[in-house]
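Sequence only, no structure available. Ideas?
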Amino acid sequence: MIKFIKKNPAIPQRWIVLTALAYSLTAAAQAQTPQAEKAFIKENMEFATKQYSLMMQTPAQGKNGKAIMPHSMRKDGTPSKGSIYLWTAGFFSWYIMVSIKLHRRQSLLQDSALVYTHQMEPAKTFTDNHDIGFMMYCSYGNANRFAPKDEYEDILVESARSLCTRFRPQAKVIQSWNGFRSWHGDKVYDFPVIIDNMMNLELLFHASKVTGDESFRKVAISHAEQVMHHQVRKDYSCFHIIYYDKKNRQAHQRRDFSGIFR
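Reply:
I predicted one. C-alpha cells follow.
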C-alpha cells in the first residue's frame, strides 16, 4: 500500500504519513504481551456488560405486544430497540449468555437471557432473507450450547430448513436478499449474495449433525465453494456483494458496499 501511494504523486503527502502511522500502530498492537491483551479484553468486556445492563431496561415487548429486542445505546444514554426480525436481533441474548459465563452472574442475568432468547422463536420460520442463520444460531444456538434442550434443537433445525428455502440449486448458493439497489442508486439487482452469508453455515452444519440429514451440510458446502470461486480475491480479501444473473444463475458482477475491500 505504501509503495502504491509513493508511486502516485497525485495522492496527498499526508496520506503517506497516515498510512505509515497506521502500520506502526498495527505493529505496536501485535507486539502487546499476553497480559496486556487479557487486560484489554477484560476492560472492554466489562464496559460492554455495563452497556448491556442498561439496554436490559428495554421492555421485551412493544406497545402493540410484539416482541422487540434492544439494539444499541443512543448518545443520550437511552437504549434503541428493533424488531426480532432485524439482522442484529440474535446478538443481544448471545452476549448476555457470554457475560454470564465470563462473570458468573447467573442469578442476575440468566432470566434475562432466557426471556430475550425465547422472544426470538417466531423468527424460526423467517424466509425473507438469509439473516435467519445468525439471528437464530447466535440466540438459540448459544442457549443450547450453555444448557442443551431438545426444544432448542427443534427450533434450530426448523430455522435451518427456513434458511434452505433460499438455496438456489442452479447457482449453488444461498440468496442473501430478494433485491438490492446499487450504492449509487442507478441499478437494482434481484439476486445478490453477500459475504456475510458465510455466517449462516454453522447453523446448517449443526442441523446436519443433530438430524443426520446430509442435505443441510451439502447446502453449506456448496455455498462455501461458490464463495471461494467467485467472491474471494487472489490476495484472500473478498468482495462484499456478488450479483448473480436471475436467468442463467451465473455470477456476473462484483461490488463492494461495506468499504473498499475486506
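The CA atoms of residues 98 and 142 lie 9 Å apart.
Hope that gets you unstuck.
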